[in-house]
Structure formats: structure tokens, C-alpha cells
Amino acid sequence: MDLRKGPLVRGLALNIVGALLVLAGIGVVATTSRGLLNYRAAATRHGGEVVNLGPDAQPQAGQHGLMARIVATPTVVEAPHDPEFNLRVNTPVLVRHVEMFQWREVRIGDGVHYELDWVDRPLDASRFRDPAGHANPPSFPIGGKQFDAGLVQVGGFKLGPVLLHALPGSQRVTPDPKSLPENLAASFTRHGDYLVTSANPGDPRLGDIRVSWDEVPLQELTVVGRLDGDRLVAATDAADGRGYDVQVGDVPVLDMFPDLPEPPEFVNGARVLSVLLAALGSLLLLSRQRAQRDVMLALGLGGLGVGVVASVLWIGGDSRILCGWLAVVLLSLLLTVWRLRRHR
User: Which of 106, 250, 302, 333 is the most buried (most CB within 10 A)?
Assistant: First the structure.
């Protein structure tokens, strides 16, 4: 065996391993950057990349325009009030339903029959096939209506109207006849969860009125919306036509928007690893040069190679990340030039 071939083989092996490490570093940063870019591009359809805020989060400088996810139970600061019935409920949205006991026409095939039932809108008996004996009152004395809370907060943020009306769920409100104004107390009595004008609630008559209320329950919700100062609103420019989402419970972003790809994890760690891998590879490639033990030069070369590739990938993307990588390129270039001059 020719002993002179030993150093040559060893040098070739070091060059191959060094080149592979440099390529691995570039591959790590390229994969991480591409994954983050793909995730952000998909998130833009829903208004932008979503940041997670805690249930006690308060408005902070620099947050304006960001999409945020908050998991919390809404707090009603100014409860809705139905002034006609003097009903105030601790809920984001209160809805009054009004029904009248009326004739309605039921058609089954070619047959028609008539029955009295509670209906939430006036029925024009003149349109019946047989209107005789089935006349209904022409209008309701009082109408249904929705009452929004004056102020509802999730964490430290006020809910905008769109998100307020998107809060899910509905449950019946039990009214208190004792709170009725005098003019209505003489006409309405409580029957279960209703206020009715029937003299005999169990046997209503034509024209009797029945009023009920539904409320949006206070429960743990996951709310995603755009930060607008101290408000959480819908992103009106989102390509999906919504720019928000509200779901019951603690729901991850990827479950709320299933079309989003998995974002890369440990992004900053991957960036540091990519530079270290490229630096180690550069150190091995320098092993047969005079600067074989110059770790600073290897670090500069590794940062320069990784930084240039990452900068190219982020052109047209996030300007802050692009500027960060350009700063890495500049510092690496200065470090490389300085160390090369020292060796000369």
C-alpha cells in the first residue's frame, strides 16, 4: 500500500464531508424558509398569519393589523336591554321573538285543511284557498327585535359587530313578569319560558300573542380576527370572504382553517443550525489551507452561504426577515474579509 495515498484519501474525504455539511446547512434554511413562505401564503387567504394571544392579553404597540387567536370566555361590559319589556340579560346578543296564534293553511297533496298555531309572522288569510272563517288579525301589536350588547370583550379586546354576531349558540331566557312595565303587566302573564296574552295560557285563542327571548351563552370560545387598536374585527380584505372565525372551545388554528399547511417548527433553531452546519462544513473544507483552524473564518463563510440563499428566498416576502438575512450576509462578509486579510 502506498502510504502517500493516505493523506490524499483523508483530504478527499474531508472535502466531501465538508461540502455535504455546507449543502445540508443550505438545505435546512431553504426548507424552513420555503415551509414558512408556503404557510404565510396560505394564511393570507384568511387575513394573514395568526399570532396566539393569551386570555388576558392587552393591546400592544406594533400589533395593529395582525391576525390574532384568543381563547377566552367573552365578558359583557354593557349588557343588552329590551326597553319595551324592561328585560336586561348578561349576554352578547339578546333576541326577542314574537308569535301570534293564527289560522294557517296546510296543504297535503291536493288536500287543504286549516289549523290554529303559533306563527312568527302575520298570515294573510285572503291568500288562502278557503278564506271564509279563517280570517287572521292584520298585524302584530309588537314585533321581534335583536338587541346587541354595548360592549363585549375577549381578553382586553372589544369585539367588532361582525364577530359579535358570529358568536355561536342560543339558549332560552326565562322572563320575570315582575320587571314588566305597568302597561304590559296587565296584558302578559308568564307561561313557561314565554310571556302570553292568553287568558288561559293552556288554551290560547285567535290573536293571542306569545313573546320569548333567546340569548347567546357565555362560554369558552376560540376567536380569530384582525387587531384594530383595542378592537378585534373581521379582515375585510381576506380572500376567503370572511377574515375571521369563532368556534366553541380551545380549537387550534389548523382545525379552524383546514386548508393551511403545517408550519415549520423551531424556526429560529433551524436558522442557527443551518449556519452552524455550513460553518462546520467550511471548516473541514479549509482543513488543508493555512486557515485550517480559523473558526471565525469558517463561521463567516458559512453565514455568507446560508444568508445569500435565505435572502434570495425572502425577496418579495416578509421585509423584516429579508432585512435580517441581509444583515447576516453583511456581517458574514465583513468577518470573512477581516479573517482573510489577517491570514495574508
Answer: 302
First CA to last CA distance, the chain: 38
Q: Which three cell numbers stand for residue 110?
A: 291536493
What does pLDDT average to in each consecutive run of 10 residues of the chain (344 residues)? 62 85 94 92 91 90 91 96 96 98 92 94 92 93 96 95 96 94 92 94 94 97 96 94 95 93 91 94 80 82 94 90 94 92 79
- In 254-289, which positions are buried (b, 16+ CB within 10 angstroms) versus exposed (e)? eebbeebeebbeeeeebbebbbbbbbbbbbbbbbee
Phi, psi of 111 (to 5 degrees): -90, 150
Nine cell digits for residue 196: 302570553
| Contact assessment for residue 334 and residue 303, using Cβ atoms and an 8 Å cutoff | no
H or E, element range at 51: strand 50-53
Radius of gyration in angstroms for the set of CA atoms belonging to the chain, rounded to a whole number? 35
DSSP 174-195: ---GGGS-HHHHTT-EEETTEE
Per the structure block, which three cell numbers stand in for 258? 383546514
Q: Pull the grid cell for residue 12.
A: 478527499
Q: Enumerate the β-bridge partners of residue 81.
A: 88
Helix, coil or strand: residue 227: strand
Asked whether the CA dihedral 190, 194, 196, 200 is positive or negative, the reply is: negative
CB neighbour list of residue 194: distance below 8 Å, 6 or more residues apart: 175, 201, 210, 211, 212
Q: In Å, what is the CA distance from 281 to each residue of 19, 29, 297, 313, 341?
A: 6, 15, 12, 22, 21
Mention every residue, 6+ apart, whose C-beta is less than 8 A from residue 106: 112, 113, 114, 115
315-323 contact pairs (CB < 8 A, 24+): 317/37, 317/40, 318/40
Please give the model's pTM, rounded to 2 decimal places: 0.77
